[in-house]
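Sequence in, structure out.
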Amino acid sequence: QVQLVESGGGLVQPGGSLRLSCAASGLILDDYTVGWFRQAPGKEREGVSAISSSGRLTYYHPSVKGRFTISRDNAKRMVYLQMNSLKSEDTAVYYCAVGSVYYRGDERGYDYWGQGTQVTVSS
């Protein structure tokens, strides 16, 4: 019943920007924490950012803090990840996930996941 669809990924040069979007359906987004995760080839999936149901609390992985910004529009059932000053190490598949409680970047706190969108940072 719950569906999350990511979009906005693509190829970008180092130093460039992308905005990822996550469209949610089958739920009242106001009730959920939303997180962004990423997985690069050969690496474990890691939590990139998270935002509480109210939007009052946010989390950023130290590697992206100051460069990425998470936001949400509950009325539109949308969550965004603005990514600036992109680096090659940001290359990964990015996933949107939702959970019932605020667990920051810990994937154990999330119940539903999108299919992912590819972000490639290369010159």
